[in-house]
Design the sequence.
């Protein structure tokens, strides 16, 4: 089941780089994945459901990576890893922008990262001075800043390295969080 879902998601991603989302048919995805129509509809309502489910899985995995792997640093989000990934899939990122799907993806990512950051803030000793009832608000603000930085980074041609962006983001995090 997992492999089938992965094949369908991979086929859609490959197609998105080749043509606009609206021009992609479910049959195109089926042909690319080598999956039957009945199998597709067992898992998804339509290609939009596939697209959003795939993005949801990616962001859930990425946003919780530090907590899941027991990271002991003061990093609140895997910024380095996210920026490296975006750098590696730049044609896909550009296709999302061209297809008008980027807003949906960024919004979904921001929500997942807000939850992941809130969890990290509860795990990091340095963040213990942040009142628990404020962690959610702070996490949402930080997630918004992260995705704003990501958009800026791409528009600027990714001239700073993912490592530099990670350091910059976390410098901003702790400058604000230490004062909160």
Sequence:
């Amino acid at each position: 089941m997992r492999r089938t879902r992965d094949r369908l998601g991979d086929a859609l991603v490959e197609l998105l780089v080749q043509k606009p989302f609206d021009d992609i048919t479910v049959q195109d995805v089926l042909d690319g994945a080598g999956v039957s129509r009945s199998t597709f509809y067992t898992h998804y309502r339509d290609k939009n459901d596939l697209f959003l489910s795939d993005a949801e899985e990616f962001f859930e995995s990425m946003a919780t990576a530090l907590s899941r792997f027991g990271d002991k640093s003061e990093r609140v989000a895997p910024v380095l890893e996210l920026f490296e990934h975006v750098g590696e899939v730049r044609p896909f990122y550009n296709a999302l922008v061209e297809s008008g799907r980027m807003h949906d993806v960024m919004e979904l990512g921001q929500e997942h990262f807000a939850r992941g950051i809130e969890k990290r803030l509860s795990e990091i000793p340095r963040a213990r001075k942040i009142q628990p009832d404020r962690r959610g608000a702070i996490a949402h603000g930080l997630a918004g800043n992260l995705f704003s930085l990501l958009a800026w980074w791409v528009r600027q041609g990714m001239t700073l390295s993912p490592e530099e962006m990670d350091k910059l983001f976390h410098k901003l995090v702790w400058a604000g969080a230490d004062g909160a």
Remarks:
- The chain has a mean pLDDT of 94.
- The first helix runs from residue 2 to 18.
- The chain has ten helices and no strands.
